[in-house]
Amino acid sequence: MLDITSAGSIIDFAKLLKNQTLRQACGSEIEKHGYKGKGNFGQILEKFYFGYEPNSDAEPDFKEAGIELKSSPLKTLKNGDFRSKERLVLNIINYLEVHKEEFETSSFWKKNAHLLLVFYLHDKDLDLLDYLIKLIDGWQYPNEDLKIIKKDWEFINQKIKKGKAHELSEGDTFYLGACTKGSTALRSFRNQPFNEEQAKQRAYSLKQGVC
Q: In whole angstroms, how large is the CA radius of gyration of the chain?
């Protein structure tokens, strides 16, 4: 039985999904899910398997346990191994607030310190309800990686403090990127502090190979 206050319980419950599809795990009611857009695999997973409404809150998805749920597609290599198909997108960067933060107490760290990762095999010929879920586990940043991620976060923050949020690029950093975010990402702009020029909406992301 799922205990949403326990990280272990949440991870164990998630692992029951291994080698299943969303359709198999959630039953027929899932077929009328009504979600549209690139991120709807994760939204369906949240609502129909874990039983909570998808949201964009600053808190982790499982607040009491401090766990953020993230799902992402895999691709199969020629040797049969799996690799992440794309970067793992985290929370939106709030330019107007993040410049006031320090890493250890930041909105980024509060939300993403402990991730529950659910990876599924992407197949363009299948309905997303029939994607096979292959890899599931709780994930926390190894100490050496965390040092680099902290430096990346601080670099992004310094650029915002200098009024240069509009100049941010994923190529600026090593592990933690500032990627464009949204279905109309190239046309989505936000106000930034210290400069009247608007900046593209961006989110923190973990580059491929980090997790």
A: 18
